[in-house]
Amino acid sequence: MAKHAHQIAPEALKPFAKYIWWKAPDEAVAFPARVIAQVMDIGDYFDVQALAHLVGDDVLREVLTHAEAGWFNERSWTYWHYRLGLAKVDKVPPLPMRRFQ
To answer: What distance, in Å, lies between the first and last C-alpha atoms of the chain?
Structure first.
């Protein structure tokens, strides 16, 4: 059975809470998908590798496919779609956008 982002133990994500610098670590890990997305977007090589090993590709795919506007920059968005096999060359979906009514 595949893991989901909300099933990752908050304690396991604490080393990555530094990427949510505007919140206290306990506050940051209360939103595991956001922490995971932030590491995917701006994490250094070693943290990205450690996170991928910890959560697995299924969780990374889940976070990417349910990302909210502003969670990824265009470069990271494209990279992760290719890396996780979610897009073919020149077929990356558009970044999530905020919609105003």
So the answer is: 39
CA distances from 85 to 21, 30, 99 (A): 30, 28, 27
Question: For residue 5, what are its two tokens?
Answer: 């982002």
For the chain, strand residue ranges (E) read none
Q: Which pLDDT tens digit goes with each residue over 81-94? A: 999 999 987 899 98
Q: What predicted TM-score, i.e. pTM, was given to this entire model?
A: 0.92
Is 94 among the domain residues? no
- Domain extent at residue 66: 26-89
Q: How far apart are CA 60 and CA 55, in angstroms?
A: 7
Please count the residues of the chain: 101
Q: Round to whole Å and give the CA distance between 11 and 26.
A: 9
Spatial distance between the Cα atoms of 101 and 91, rounded to a whole number of angstroms: 28
Is 1 a residue whose pLDDT tops 60? no
Instruction: Please check whether residue 97 lies inside any domain of the structure.
Output: no
